[in-house]
Amino acid sequence: MAQHEHVRVAVIGSGFGGLGAAVRLRREGITDFLVLERAGSVGGTWRDNSYPGCACDVPSHLYSFSFAPNPDWPRTFSGQQHIRAYLEHVADTFGLRPHIRLDHEVTVMRWDNDELHWVIETANGATITADAVVSATGPLSDPKLPDIPGLADFPGKVFHSAQWDHDYDLSGKRVAVVGTGASAIQIVPEIQPKAGRLTLFQRTPPWVMPRMDRAISGAEKWLHRALPFTATARRGLLWGIRELQVGAFTKHPNQLGLVESIAKSNMARAIKDPALRAKLTPSYRIGCKRILLSNAYYPALAQPNVDVVASGLSEVRGSTLVGSDGSETEADVIILGTGFHVTDMPIASRVVGADGITLAESWKDEMQALRGATAAGFPNWMTIIGPNTGLGNSSMILMIESQLNYMADYMRQLDVLGGRAALDARPSAVGAWNRRVQERMKRTVWNTGGCTSWYLDANGRNTTVWPGTTAEFRRATRSVDLGEYEVVRAPATTRTAAQAVTEEAAR
User: Fold this and answer.
1) 152-167 pLDDT, tens per residue?
2) Are 164 and 339 in contact (CB under 8 A)?
3) Which of 9, 25, 247, 271 has a CA positioned 20 to 30 A from the CA of residue 407?
4) Signal peptide location in the record (predicted)?
């Protein structure tokens, strides 16, 4: 019989969550693990999203691991290429390369009730078993394509922002951009000068704040290298400012009016046409949808070769794009800035739990996980950036590191239990946690601000964002409460291969 590889932990994905998990496992003394990555290099969403202008909207010194500071960030808000290079650096610095299996897309992972381990199959034919799985595929990994009649028959070029075709020349083309999210507002200013005509199909206008970006001076870099505590202090200041902002988002949305006035002033400086300004002014409370940062978006929309269709795209008839208002636009290329599968993550359909049902089936009514990490019926399975762990105003790296603390204690608890054991989140504990989160969510701007956003699932529930501070979440995930878990032991009749050999020798 073919021998299958067995590891203590299998990590799925090699973005911030996956690489962070790998570093933390090594720090915990666990070296028997693999990182399974579907692509040919590490980097996650910062590898996939290489569109023009791609950059982070969180300051560089806060959008990096606390255990891997980078004194050489080139700008206060770093671009995609620098963040991807940082992740490659983390993989090298912490000796993760031997653990990483590239081009190993997971097609299914099944829990084996008898052996108390996960059986993982990959697209290239590998089979791996693991005592525990850490799923770090992330919510921004699978592009969401819109269901627009006629789109499949469009005779020109079509691609999603996360699957940018760098070989396609936009010069002089009639370009249609669908969507006005974080990717679109970065793409539009970059491609507008090249396009012959650019039409932006906007379903809902975003709130756009000024982007306080600048080059980081050589003196600053030197200081952070020579005196590392200065970088730590800088990071702490950036974190503290954002923690103070949380209350306005989660408890007192009416306090955000001042922020709206700043955003309106940002628009007014560039958009002089009252009709265009009316199209671009949101009717919902700022913060309800993700607040975007740009100094170039509004100036690009004011250029004479740009049109804004404020009713969204409703149909494609050949090369003619029809807006919901009946307007028609001819296009050579359609760029889809339509986001990702966030509340219906495709990886969930590939996880089969103890009862033989998939995680997607378990989550069909609502995604929910205990402390954003574990799901009932899926023993020894954890997710990084799980349900209700997203942020509306700060760095996701803070949330990831909190979840890594939880993961580390989870593995310690398994060691304490000894023998062949697994932990399965109690349905009552998952339900209680979710009820507390959703109760707090009722007051937040994400639920009361008057918008429909990608934070909400098909049933209108906010299963994406954390309704509190990052400090609160860190306290909540500091350690595992065994009272929230069922301890699962292997059936008495199940023998490991080693036990069978020992028993045979005894005869």
Assistant:
1) 999 999 999 999 999 9
2) no
3) 247
4) none
